[in-house]
Amino acid sequence: MEILMSILIGFLFMAAVYLILSRSLLRIIIGTGLLSHGTHLLLLTMGGLGGKSAPVLADGITDYADPLPQALILTAIVISFGVTAFSLVLAYRAYKVVGTDNMDLMKGNEDND
Amino acid sequence: MSLIFAIFLPIIVAFVIPFLFKKVSNIHTGWFVLLVPLGLVAFYGTYIPDIMAGNTYMEEFAWIPSLDISLVSYLDGLSLLFSLLITGIGMLVVLYSIFYLDKEKEKLGNFYVYLLLFMSAMLGVVQSDHLISLYFFWELTSISSFLLIGYWYTKDRSRFGALKSMMITVFGGLMMLGGFVILGIMGDTFSIRELIDQASTLVNHDLFVWALVLVLIGAFTKSAQFPFYIWLPDAMEAPTPVSAYLHSATMVKAGLYLVARFTPIFALSEVWVWLVTGVGLLTLFWGSIFAVKQTDLKAILAFSTVSQLGLIMSLLGIGSISYHVTGDLVTTFTFASFAAIFHLMNHATFKGSLFMIAGIVDHETGTRDIRKLGGLMSLMPISFTIAMIGSFSMAGIPLFNGFLSKEMFLDATLSLQQFNVHSLDSWWILFPVIAWIASVFTFVYSLYFVFHTFRGKYKPELLPKKAHEAPLGMLVSPAILAILVIVIFFVPNFFGNTFIKPAVAAIQPLAYQVPADVGFKIKAWHGFESTALYMTLGIFLIGFLLYKTIAKWVPLYENMPAKISLNRFYDGLMNLSDKGANRLSSSYMTGSIRSYLIYMFAALIILLAFTMWVKDAFVMDLTNLAPIQFFEVLISVVLIISTITILVTKSRLTAIIALGAVGYTVALFYIIFKAPDLALTQLVIETVSVALFLGAFYHLPKLNKYEKGKEDRRFRLNNFLIALGVGVMVTLIAIASHSQKLVVSISEYYKETVYSEAGGGNIVNVILVDYRGFDTLFEISVLTIASLGIIGMITVRLAKKKGDRKVENK
């Protein structure tokens, strides 16, 4: 399962990087969303997937899933939501001001500020 | 007062100067500054008797103990002479500047801060025994020189000159640092004295010549030797007190100091002897020839300084021959070192006074152009007298100290005859001949300087100001120097015993144990059998004839090809590096975030792959795997299909929904992998996210495919390759990280203590709110900031119209 997950994570990263490198703002934001999904799954996989039980204390159970990656991911999910929301509004605002969502046209230089 | 404190005293005082300048407006700030060199001269003066007796002083302060770098103040004959020069001339220059710089118009605060900074730096250079701290002070002199040349920073020429001097001297400084590091590696110490003790073994080291050449480049750039001298004439844009102080009396002599200081180490190599002597003589010759064609008073003095520095340099080179000879010949050549130090002192006196006179002329007539000047003798009689004393001394005329050292110099070049190696017997004669020609030109420009300014026809219509004698205070400093010029001629041996012999003993430690061993006496008259006498007479005769006919042959300089001048070379080099740097940085600083992301991703791939390859970390362990169930495969397929949908779709809506699908499948994974909290959070967040996307969707443009056409196929291919690289890399890392657990996870700690320490059962929740409570608090703060930003962006109306926007992009 870990190998399958690793490949899946790699695939998510690939898709995310491809989207981030594109010119459209919306695709870039979607790319960052995919990137955070990939990262969360990577954290989880690194901790091991073989846990028999959720990390909640219960009598007679010793084989818990690793709680630490889960704690980290929980924080990361919330933060990545914040990032997505912020960049989405930023994109909206930029589009209103600049009139395009093409990154190539938005870059600042002498010809084009 | 400790020696190290004395070095830093000027810098410490410099901190108070700006306040004094602001608060005490009725007293010229210079009067306060004057106290510093005054006190230091007295302080160093007390060391004279002990240093004369052959004692040395040392004081150490651990600066960076972990790297074994310390500030060592080492006072011997050589450093004491320089320290006295720095503080003594500094005192006169500050006094002069009080009258030269107007307290209403000039930014005196800046000026004196720079000057004091320089004073500390220069004292540090001549007293440091540690190579690294020597380098530190050395560069500090370059920086303060830069600031002082650029003092009138609104003038283009000032800024140009400042930058030029900085470029060339800092280049030399870096070379010198390289030489120091090599010395440190060879001798396993950075202490100059310890290196001197090891000199006889160092000379056989393979890197010895490299260290020698690199250190010499440092010395040559600083002391304006050929071909690095070009910065000195441009440095004349500095206020005249600065030119008199830094660019004639002290800073440019730092290179000479360096050569003198390292003579006991490097003189063992003949490369040193010929490089120092040859470059010195060439500079002497070159500088004197070009001084004659200058029309600016200060430019004449600048080229003359270049040439005189070359003279001293060549004397130091001849002096280092003493390490290659035995018996009586040793004193024949140590005599050259003696002459070098003597002329160094003489040069400081007469050139200092001449610079101050040039400043006075500039101040009182408003121009330094010698073609407009003339006939000032009757208007400015005192200035004329001082200028004459200085010029005659420079020309080497008797009754002035320059005569003594000039004759000693000629004697020294003649003594080269006795260094019979490498079949030198045939062409040694070249050295005295070059020296003689240079001396003739020195004679010519000395007379040209003084007589074309003060005699001839007075041309008031060409002068911006009505000329009159300078105020008395301004004349004090040059007058003191001029009096010294004459006094030294009449009692040379007093100065010889007091200052020069201790310095020579420091340069020639093998020949002399204590200063008293140096047995030279300075004489004005050597008898009729002296060859130097006839050479001097020849100089006077030919020099006078050339001076009389100067108007006829100076136009010949116009025939010099302008294209191959060193200045052109410097300008070209600067231009090239300017453009090159610009082109280089604009080639990768495209302003497009995408490019920067590509660099980051590429670096990620390369660095990670390299590190893991080196560490042999690509491991795949198939034993301890969790089993794969059908349900998990199904979710994986859904995830892949949704992701592909995002990649290929042209519709915004599809992309957003597909992203939501990815999020929900990830939530399903959390459930499978026993992470209920994550699953819950993910579901909530994903729902809100999709809602947000749909809300923004209404306002965002269509998901345009900007990538079209043939060029865009390449664009997409590039993106794909980078994306593929990142994906493969992450997969490999994920596998590797699963396959090798090098350290025990700290999760066990949480599992064991969660109930006893925190009293909770849900381990994840307890970690978040208890063990890592602050992290969660900050996480909330981040969200708050993000939401404030969002509110700001949505509610604040566009303040400016599109046309008003100005993006500074410089």
| Separation of the first and last Cα atoms of chain B | 50 Å
Number of strands of chain B: 2
User: Class of chain A, according to the CATH hierarchy?
Assistant: Mainly Alpha
Task: For the largest sheet of chain B, list the strands in their spatial order.
Answer: 1-2
In total, how many beta strands of chain A?
A: 0
Beta strand % of chain A: under 5%
What's the quaternary structure here? heterodimer
Tally the helices of chain A: what do you get?
4
Question: Residue ranges of chain B: pLDDT <50 for 5 or more in a row?
Answer: 800-810
Biggest sheet statistics of chain A: none
Number of domains of chain B: 4
Give me the CATH architecture of chain A, please.
Orthogonal Bundle
Radius of gyration of chain A (Å): 19 Å
Proportion of residues in helical segments of chain A: 55-70%
Q: Which fold does the CATH topology of chain A refer to? A: Helix Hairpins
- Average pLDDT of chain B: 87
Question: Care to describe what's here?
Answer:
The complex is a heterodimer of chains A (113) and B (810). Chain A is mainly α and 113 residues long. Chain A has one domain (1-50, 65-104): Helix Hairpins. Chain A is built from four helices and no strands. Chain A has helices spanning 2-20, 25-47, 67-98, 103-106. The radius of gyration of chain A is 19 Å and the shape is elongated. Chain B has 810 residues and is mainly alpha-helical. Chain B has four domains: 1-181 and 238-251, no CATH class; 336-564, no CATH class; 594-700 and 715-742, Up-down Bundle (Four Helix Bundle (Hemerythrin (Met), subunit A)), CATH 1.20.120; 745-785, no CATH class. Helices cover 70% and strands 2% of the residues of chain B. Chain B has 33 helices and two strands. In chain B, strands 1-2 form a two-stranded antiparallel sheet. In chain B, α26 (593-614) packs parallel to α30 (709-739). Chain B starts with a helix and ends in a 15-residue tail after the last helix. Chains A and B meet through α1, α2 and α3 of A and α26, α27, α28, α29 and α30 of B.
